[in-house]
């Protein structure tokens, strides 16, 4: 599974990244989760993310403009399994 955090590197983006790392470690699944930060504005536009931070799971935008907590992210990850 590939999880991308879209953002220019602001504090909110960093917090979403940290929460995503926590969420992935709490999923208790054998699935390998790759977490990647993406700061390319052209990629944001291509994905339809105009408010950062954005959370993308396996190529699908699941959140924009919000800093989800670890439990919210875990739920979204598990929905994709």
CATH class term? Alpha Beta
Q: Beta-strand level of the residues, as a percent range? A: 15-25%
Q: Helix amount, in percent? A: 25-40%
**Unreliable runs, pLDDT <50, ≥5 residues?**
none
- Walk across the major sheet and give the strand order: 2-1-3-4
The Rg value, from CA coordinates, equals: 11 Å
**Inertia-based shape:** globular
Give me the strand/helix succession: EHEHEEH
Number of helical elements? 3
Mean of the pLDDT scores?
Answer: 96
Number of domains: 1
The CATH topology corresponds to Glutaredoxin
Q: How many strands appear in the DSSP assignment? A: 4
**Ends distance:** 9 Å
For CATH, the homologous superfamily is named as Glutaredoxin
Structural class: alpha+beta
Would you write up a description of this structure?
The chain has 81 residues and is of the alpha+beta class. The chain has a single domain, classed as Glutaredoxin (3-Layer(aba) Sandwich), CATH 3.40.30. Helix content is 40%, strand content 23%. The chain has helices at residues 11-25, 41-47, 70-79; strands spanning 2-6, 34-38, 54-57, 60-64. Strands 2-1-3-4 form a four-stranded mixed β-sheet, with helices on both faces. Strand 1 (2-6), helix 1 (11-25) and strand 2 form a beta-alpha-beta unit. The protein is globular and about 35 Å long. It starts with a strand and ends with a helix. The mean pLDDT is 96.
């Amino acid at each position: 599974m590939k999880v991308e955090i879209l953002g220019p590197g602001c504090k909110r983006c960093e917090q979403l990244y940290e929460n995503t790392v926590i969420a992935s470690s709490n999923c208790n699944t054998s699935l390998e989760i790759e977490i990647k930060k993406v700061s390319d504005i052209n990629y944001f536009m291509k994905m339809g993310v105009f408010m950062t931070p954005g959370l993308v799971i396996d190529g699908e935008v699941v959140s924009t403009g919000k800093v989800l907590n670890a439990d919210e992210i875990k739920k979204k990850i598990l929905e994709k399994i």
